[in-house]
Amino acid sequence: MSSRIVVKIGSSSLTSVEGGLNRDAISFFANEISNLKRDGYEVLLVTSGAVAAGFRAIGYSFRPKLLHEKQAAAAVGQALLMQAYQEAFAGHGIINAQILLTRTDFISRQRMNNAVMTIEELLNQGAVPIFNENDTVSVDELKFGDNDTLSAMVANMVKAEHLLILTDMDGLYSGDPRKHPNAVRFDHIEHITEEIYSIAGGAGSSLGTGGMRSKVDAAKIATRGGVPVFVGKVSEPGDLSHAVNGQGRGTYFDTHLNSLPVKKQWLGFMSTPLGTLQVDDGAEKAMVHNGHSLLPVGVKNVAGHFHAGDVVEVVNARGVILGRGIVNYDVEQIQQILGKSSTEVFQILSSVHRLEVIHRDEWITLL
Ligand SMILES: Nc1ncnc2c1ncn2[C@@H]1O[C@H](COP(=O)(O)OP(=O)(O)O)[C@@H](O)[C@H]1O
Ligand SMILES: N[C@@H](CCC(=O)OP(=O)(O)O)C(=O)O
């Protein structure tokens, strides 16, 4: 299998504030991507810009704010976006394919497997698949909202070698450079800490959506899935190859993990937790640092409405989220056995299927 690169391009790099596509930018990126293909990489493109490309064409003077207006603009703009890419890539003899996804597609293992099979075949045939969110059918709470998260999920799904998130800023700075001119750039980030989150602000222009915050979110998802991430600017010929080779103008988020099995990707980033377990310091250490399962004795509190087999979030004594797991008991059972030793659990419950509250094979650390 040749190396796979997922490239995400934000609205701010493709469109103008007045609305409409910047065709020069599109042909520049098509050129950069075709060079990567020539170097032997398989490239998957996640592109934003449908709303920005379509809102003028459909008759709005400003980028719309209401959901149904944005969806209408995106429906118009998506066709314009694909047309522009197809024209630009055709000049390099490259065929494109359009793939529109929503968060629910990732929640369903079957839909995800189908998507993976289609993508594998497209890559086999030498095509460059182009992804965007399926804005028309996405509903508020299910929306990716920005395509940064989508790009991380795609990168994990196809086990990419790199995720390159391209934007109008050359990396993550110690503060938004638009507001803090003396901010300095991070070249490498080993671990995404709370401090990194606190400096990553919102969108810098009326074109973008998630700003650096959603890019850090995306970097967290991808690096947890074993995919290293570059966030930065690609505006000169050769910049995209430099970004792949570690010499890009931006910030690199390192990963020390191997690619995550699909089941754990689902558990960590696509599942919906139905409850929360609070654990004590001993259980935190056992689960997070020693790779052990969670036993009833380590559980301090429980909240939510769930049954055995559902996903729950686990927090430590200070309320910090440690990860997610599939729970082996109903909430009512946990209320009876929290803090109890294994012997007591067998005395309290009439039948115990598995002693662990969460087995280590059904757990993902998200710190
Ligand atoms: N700490 C930070 N470092 C760099 N940029 C930041 C930071 N915090 C916020 N930003 C803003 O994030 C913007 C990029 O995100 P966004 O506008 O959503 O672009 P895109 O459309 O490419 O996704 C930058 O233009 C910048 O103003
Ligand atoms: N799906 C939307 C993406 C919205 C958006 O602006 O995202 P981004 O520029 O990546 O922050 C579109 O194509 O307009």
TrEMBL record:
One of its GO terms (biological process) is L-proline biosynthetic process. The keyword Nucleotide-binding applies. Residues 275-358 form the PUA domain. Keywords: Amino-acid biosynthesis, ATP-binding, Cytoplasm, Kinase, Nucleotide-binding, Proline biosynthesis, Transferase. Substrate binds at residues 48, 135, 147. Coiled coil: none annotated. One of its GO terms (cellular component) is cytosol. It catalyses: L-glutamate + ATP = L-glutamyl 5-phosphate + ADP. InterPro entries: AceGlu_kinase-like_sf, Asp/Glu/Uridylate_kinase, G5K_ProB, Glu/AcGlu_kinase, Glu_5kinase, Glu_5kinase/COase_Synthase, Glutamate_5-kinase_CS, PUA. Pathway: Amino-acid biosynthesis; L-proline biosynthesis; L-glutamate 5-semialdehyde from L-glutamate: step 1/2. NCBIfam families: proB (TIGR01027). HAMAP family: ProB. This is Glutamate 5-kinase. The gene is proB.
